[in-house]
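Consider this one:
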Amino acid sequence: MKFNRIFIATIALVLATPTIAKAAELEADRFYAGGGISTNDLHGEDSTGAQIFAGYELPFQLGEADTAIEVGYHDAGDFDRPRRNFRGDENISGLWTTGVASLPVADKVDLVGRFGVDFGDDDGLMAGGGVGIDLAPRIEFRGEYVIRDRTESLQANVLYRF
């Protein structure tokens, strides 16, 4: 089951982060990891999917915006395509990387923007934007709209800062 693979990968990522930081001589408290669910659209067909990701907050800002880089895996779920040119269930998944900017707009609220590349089934450029809300000192909720080459996603993610 895909959910089990995503769950296991998330746990492995969380456990490996301190080791990765030490090996790369990066500041461990700049790392974060997260995941969530998404509703996806492929030419009018909908699906429910999930994603996991890890990020590193960069030591510089773009104006007032904090910057980060993220890598992740998105599985858009199965799109049922009961039409002419039927190719069966179509599943779109793969790795991606983006640059992320977070601009504070209120206490505990940021506007989030991203731009990068998807390397999976939906390869090509990807971009998105949304809002981040601090729920606790190390926990953030993000709601985002993300556009890839073939799909569009509404995502609800939770991230944990180490």
